[in-house]
C-alpha cells in the first residue's frame, strides 16, 4: 500500500507538472528547447511543489506538541513574520508581514511554531482574508487561548503588475477571536502593540 500522507491532498507528480509547463511554454509562443528554457519545466515543477507544500502539512505535525506551560495570562505578540503566498485567482505571488497576538490560558507556543503555522497556510493557493482567519483559528485551537488576533499586510503582484497596476497598494486583513473580539480594551492593546 502506498504511504499515506498527512493531508488528503496528493503529492504532486513533478514529471507531470514539468510536461504541462512544457506545453504551456509552447502555447505562450516560446521555444522550450532553447538554451535558457531547457530545464525550466523541471525547475517550475520543483518550485510549485515547494510553494504549495502547505497542502501537505498538518497542524499537529507542525506544532509537534511544542507547547510550553506558562503561569501568567499575558498577551503574547509576534510581529513582522514574513509571508509569501500565491493568490488563487491568478496564481501570482502576494507577500507581506503577519502579526499575531494571543492571550494564553497557560499554554503557549514557541515563536518558531507560530512562524511555521503562518508558512503552513501561506504555502498554498490563497486569498488573504481566508488565510488570516485560518491562522487565527489554528492558534486558537492549538493553544486553547482566551483570544487571538492576526493582522496581515500584503502586496499582491496580481494588482501590481497587471489589472489595475496599483504598485503601492497594500491590503490589510485582520481576524480576531475570543476576548480579542469581545473586549475592546484587549483589541486596542493588541493593535497598539503591533504598531510599535
Ligand atoms: Zn490575484
Q: What features would you describe in this structure?
A:
The protein folds into two domains: 49 residues, Orthogonal Bundle (GTP Cyclohydrolase I, Chain A, domain 1); 131 residues, GTP cyclohydrolase I, C-terminal domain/NADPH-dependent 7-cyano-7-deazaguanine reductase, N-terminal domain (GTP Cyclohydrolase I, domain 2, 2-Layer Sandwich), CATH 3.30.1130. It has a five-stranded mixed beta sheet, with helices on both faces. A two-stranded antiparallel ribbon has the order 1-4. Helices cover 40% and strands 26% of the residues. The protein is elongated, with a radius of gyration of 20 Å. It is of the alpha+beta class and 196 residues long. It has eight helices and seven strands, in the order H-H-H-E-E-E-E-H-E-H-E-H-E-H-H. Helix 1 crosses helix 2.
Tell me which CATH architecture of the largest domain applies here: 2-Layer Sandwich
Classification by helices and strands? alpha+beta
Shape descriptor reads: elongated
Give the CATH H-level superfamily of the largest domain: GTP cyclohydrolase I, C-terminal domain/NADPH-dependent 7-cyano-7-deazaguanine reductase, N-terminal domain
**Topology, number of strands:** 7
Distance between the termini: 53 Å
- Spans of at least 5 consecutive residues whose pLDDT stays below 50 are 1-5
Label this structure with key terms:
GTP Cyclohydrolase I, domain 2, alpha+beta, disordered N terminus, 196 residues, 8 helices, GTP Cyclohydrolase I, Chain A, domain 1, two-stranded antiparallel ribbon
Amino acid at each position: 500500500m502506498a504511504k499515506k500522507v498527512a493531508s488528503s491532498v496528493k503529492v504532486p507528480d513533478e514529471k507531470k507538472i514539468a510536461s504541462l509547463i512544457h506545453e504551456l511554454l509552447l502555447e505562450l509562443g516560446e521555444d522550450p528547447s532553447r538554451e535558457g528554457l531547457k530545464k525550466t519545466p523541471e525547475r517550475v515543477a520543483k518550485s510549485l511543489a515547494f510553494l504549495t507544500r502547505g497542502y501537505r502539512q498538518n497542524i499537529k505535525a507542525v506544532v509537534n506538541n511544542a507547547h510550553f506551560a506558562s503561569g501568567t495570562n499575558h498577551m503574547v505578540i509576534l510581529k513582522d513574520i514574513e509571508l509569501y503566498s500565491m493568490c488563487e485567482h491568478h496564481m501570482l505571488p502576494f507577500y507581506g508581514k503577519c502579526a499575531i497576538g494571543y492571550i494564553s490560558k497557560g499554554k503557549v507556543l514557541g515563536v518558531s511554531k507560530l512562524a511555521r503555522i503562518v508558512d503552513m497556510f501561506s504555502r498554498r493557493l490563497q486569498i488573504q482574508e481566508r488565510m488570516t482567519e485560518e491562522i487565527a483559528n489554528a492558534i486558537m485551537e492549538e493553544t486553547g487561548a482566551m483570544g487571538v488576533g492576526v493582522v496581515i499586510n500584503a502586496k499582491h503582484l496580481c494588482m501590481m503588475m497587471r489589472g489595475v497596476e496599483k504598485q503601492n497598494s497594500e491590503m490589510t486583513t485582520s481576524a480576531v477571536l475570543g476576548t480579542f473580539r469581545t473586549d475592546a480594551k484587549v483589541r486596542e492593546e493588541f493593535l497598539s502593540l503591533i504598531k510599535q
